[in-house]
């Protein structure tokens, strides 16, 4: 059974195996297919028409399934690997071990945002940005440059306290847990972290930065914690909406997956705490 751990507790060997599995997927082309898929959804998800991956109730089940597929690809390379999660309420500075050269590398240089250390620095020759939104083919970050503070534990708790999963108009204007967690309203949790990292993370091709997976693994864990705290609060909408993935609607790009299939993460993995 897969156990997803807090990245701060990984051993040197666990970090090395995770990084090496990612580099293998990059080398064989698999990694970039995930970037392409994510960007296609970002480009087509919008508030008024069909929306699946973002700005809509299925934001959480969609990313749960997307992460699961990536984790399974990693495990096909190295069966001991699981996605770690980044608790950005605790590891909230650029001095975190997350950003050390033996794991994800650090922030970009001031001139052009280019990440210069760690396994994903372009100078190492193993991490060319192929699926990109502009001409720059190197990983970029600007940690803390566009927004100074990552969300706090108190802000997370205020969102976990919300009792309704989602509500009309089922988009970025909605009240409810999903939209506050996604970050279009209120204290802004998920979106803010993308902007705090900056570079590709602030764009539709965000999975180009491997921190994407650790960020979303934590978002996924917050969803699981919310479900545990509100056992009587279902996924919504149940049925009958247009342009939105209802509980038992098929969720693109998969043709046999519905939100209902993704509600219980314990079918697939557990968390260390
Ligand atoms: Cu996304
Ligand atoms: Cu995201």
In short:
With 273 residues, this protein is mainly α.
Describe the structure.
The chain has 273 residues and is an all-alpha fold. It is 35% helix and 2% strand. α1 (12-27) crosses α3 (59-77) and α3 crosses α7 (211-229). The two termini are 15 Å apart. The mean pLDDT is 97. The structure holds copper (I) ion (CU1) (2 copies). One copper (I) ion (CU1) is lined by residues 38, 53-54, 63. One copper (I) ion binds next to α6.
List the helices and strands and how they pair.
Blueprint: E1 2-4, H1 12-27, H2 30-44, H3 59-77, H4 153-160, H5 177-182, H6 190-197, H7 211-229, H8 259-262, E2 269-271
Parallel strand pairs: 1-2
Helix pairs in contact: 1-3, 3-7
Bound molecules: copper (I) ion (CU1) (2 copies).
Features:
di-copper center containing domain from catechol oxidase, mainly alpha, globular, single chain, binds copper (I) ion
Class by alpha and beta content: mainly alpha
CATH architecture: Orthogonal Bundle
The biggest beta sheet reads:
2 strands, parallel
Number of DSSP strands?
2
CATH topology (fold) name = di-copper center containing domain from catechol oxidase
**Which overall shape is indicated by the principal axes computed on the Cα atoms?**
globular
| SSE pattern, N- to C-terminal | EHHHHHHHHE
């Amino acid at each position: 059974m897969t156990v997803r751990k807090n990245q701060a507790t990984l051993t040197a060997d666990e970090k090395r195996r995770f990084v090496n599995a990612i580099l293998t997927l990059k080398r064989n082309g698999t990694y970039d297919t995930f970037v392409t898929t994510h960007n296609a959804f970002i480009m087509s998800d919008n508030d008024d028409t069909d929306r699946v991956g973002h700005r809509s109730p299925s934001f959480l089940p969609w990313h749960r399934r997307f992460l699961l597929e990536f984790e399974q690809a990693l495990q096909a390379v190295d069966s001991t690997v699981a996605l770690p999660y980044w608790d950005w309420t605790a590891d909230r500075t650029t001095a975190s071990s997350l950003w050390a050269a033996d794991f994800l590398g650090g922030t970009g240089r001031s001139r052009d945002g280019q990440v210069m250390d760690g396994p994903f620095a372009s100078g190492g020759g193993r991490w060319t940005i192929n699926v990109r939104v502009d001409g720059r083919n190197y990983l970029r970050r600007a940690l803390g440059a566009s927004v100074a503070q990552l969300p706090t534990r108190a802000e997370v708790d205020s969102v976990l306290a919300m009792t309704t999963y989602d509500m009309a108009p089922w988009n970025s204007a909605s009240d409810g847990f999903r939209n506050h967690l996604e970050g279009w309203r209120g204290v802004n949790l998920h979106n803010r972290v993308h902007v705090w990292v900056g570079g590709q993370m602030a764009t539709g091709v965000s999975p180009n930065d491997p921190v994407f997976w650790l960020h979303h693994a934590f978002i996924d864990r917050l969803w699981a914690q919310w479900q545990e705290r509100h056992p009587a609060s279902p996924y919504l909408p149940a049925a009958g909406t247009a342009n939105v993935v209802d509980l038992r609607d098929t969720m693109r790009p998969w043709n046999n997956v519905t939100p209902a299939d993704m509600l219980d993460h314990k079918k697939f993995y557990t968390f260390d705490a």
